[in-house]
Structures are given as structure tokens and as C-alpha cells.
Design a protein that fits this description.
single chain; mainly alpha; 12 helices; 71% helix; 5% strand
């Protein structure tokens, strides 16, 4: 039933995009400038290196990605999908989060090293298949963890840049019907948005009080409100929540300092250099 609902949501989104595609050119200079304005503002206001190129790619897929050439590419399908600049900032901040945490580099290094080891080892066909399967599961698990880290990094970047971080909750919950929990590199929508919302409510309570007016956010709150109410009514659950969030908050503060220092040390370039050294 959940799978059917997800497919239905994806179908509705594709129909909405198709309806708008006939009347709007989403690769105009204005839209490219919009992506660059938001992206560069996030970098500048967080004192991050500006060596990131922002691109717009023509496709109806609702997605964006960062690559090992320090590019962030936003699909036109996503531009048609976000309600406002804050939601677009949430997506871009998430992708910046992948770069500053070196996720792209780690994925490429592990994949390249594993593939090289398998190719140069005298394995039977069955052993090669098992090794490839094990590597794929490792990459999936690591990717799901990294999605969480990129999300909350994005929240930190958004907040410092003056955006309401609840916009990320709104946009992620909106596209959640496209994600699967185990077979995808992304966590399920409910888990992901709840993790994000918990972090925002604890670390940025003033932003939570502002609320958010999109239909997507309102629907998310229908899901989240009973969970929060139950937790607040249980002293042990609440204490556990506060302890875990305080630990996460401290970890994030240390990470933000590390990101700032990267501007002087050029530290976030090292991982990309590793990739090039292995690849060429």
C-alpha cells in the first residue's frame, strides 16, 4: 500500500510538472541566476570557500546533486517543484552539506578502491558477486547516514544565511513519496523529516515558533505532532531525547568551526585531490 501511494504521489508530481513545462522555460538566465544567487549567498554568509559552481540541468526529475568537481547541479524538475526561495535554499544547502562533509569524495574513494581490489584479485565469479553486493550495501548504509548529516548541515547553513530551516522540512516531506527506506540511498521521508525537525526544534527553537505556511509542512505536522506529544509526556523519553540532541548540537558546533577553518587551510579540496590521484 505504501509503495502504491508513493508511486501515485510521484505520478501526480510528474503531471504537475508536465502542465507547467509547456508555458515556462526553466533554463532561462533568470532561473540560473536564482540558483547561483541563493547558492553563493549560502557560501558567503557561512564564510565557506566559493569554489563551487552552480548549474541548472534540463530534466523533469525532481532532484539535485553534488559531484567530485565541486559542482552542484539542480534539475529543472526541482525548480518547478519548490514553492519559494527558502525551499530551494534548503535543497542547495543540503548539497553543500555533502561537499563540506566530503561525502562525495568518500563515496568515490571507497567505490574506486573496492572496484580496483576486486579487479586485481584472483576471485571466483561467486566471490566477486558477493564482494560487489557487500560493497553496495555498505555504500547504501553510508549514504543514508550521510543524508542525515547533509540535512542538518544544510539547516545550520540555511539558518546562518537568514532562511527559515523549516523550509527544508517542507520540501523534503513534499518529495518523500519518491524515496524508499532500505533499497534507496535516501532514508524514508518520515524518518528523515522527523530527524530534521527534532534537530531544528532543539537547536533553533525560535525558528520553530515561526512555523511555516506551506501545505506540505502542515501535513508533516499532522504526522509529527502526536510523536512530540507522546515524547513530552514521558519523562524518560524526553530526557533521552534532550541528551541525544545536546550531544548532536555540540557535534554540529564543532563541525561548523571546522568548515570555517577550511577556507584558510583549503582542507575540503584534499578529498577531491585524492579522487583524481586514484582515477588518473
Amino acid at each position: 500500500m505504501k509503495k502504491i501511494l508513493g508511486l501515485f504521489i510521484a505520478f501526480v508530481f510528474s503531471m504537475h510538472i508536465a502542465a507547467n513545462a509547456a508555458t515556462t522555460n526553466w533554463t532561462t538566465k533568470a532561473n540560473v541566476d536564482r540558483v547561483n544567487r541563493i547558492g553563493k549567498s549560502l557560501l558567503a554568509k557561512n564564510n565557506l570557500p566559493t569554489k563551487i559552481e552552480f548549474k541548472v540541468i534540463e530534466t523533469d526529475e525532481v532532484n539535485a546533486f553534488a559531484n567530485a568537481d565541486k559542482q552542484i547541479c539542480v534539475y529543472t524538475g526541482l525548480l518547478k517543484f519548490v514553492d519559494n526561495d527558502a525551499e530551494l535554499a534548503g535543497v542547495i544547502a543540503h548539497e553543500i552539506g555533502h561537499i563540506v562533509n566530503n561525502h562525495v569524495a568518500k563515496q568515490n574513494v571507497i567505490g574506486t578502491v573496492t572496484a580496483t581490489a576486486i579487479a586485481n584479485t584472483n576471485m571466483s565469479a561467486g566471490m566477486r558477486l558477493a564482494a560487489n553486493s557487500a560493497n553496495n550495501l555498505t555504500m547504501l548504509k553510508m549514504s543514508r547516514v550521510e543524508e542525515y548529516e547533509a540535512d542538518i548541515t544544510g539547516v545550520d547553513l540555511m539558518t546562518k544565511a537568514g532562511y527559515n530551516p523549516l523550509a527544508m522540512v517542507s520540501v523534503l516531506f513534499k518529495i518523500g513519496g519518491c524515496y524508499k527506506d532500505f533499497t534507496s540511498t535516501h532514508p524514508s521521508s518520515d524518518k528523515r523529516t522527523m530527524y530534521l525537525y527534532d534537530y531544528i526544534t532543539y537547536t533553533y527553537p525560535a525558528k520553530t515558533k515561526l512555523g511555516y505556511t506551506t501545505d506540505s509542512y502542515k501535513k508533516f505536522m499532522i504526522y509529527a505532532a502526536p510523536i512530540v506529544k507522546e515524547r513530552n509526556a514521558d519523562a524518560k523519553k524526553l530526557a533521552k531525547f534532550n541528551k541525544s540532541q545536546e550531544k548532536l548540537k555540540a557535534k554540529r558546533a564543532a563541525k561548523m568551526e571546522k568548515y570555517k577553518n577550511a577556507k584558510d587551510s583549503n582542507g575540503w579540496d584534499k578529498s577531491f585531490n585524492v579522487i583524481r590521484a586514484i582515477s588518473y
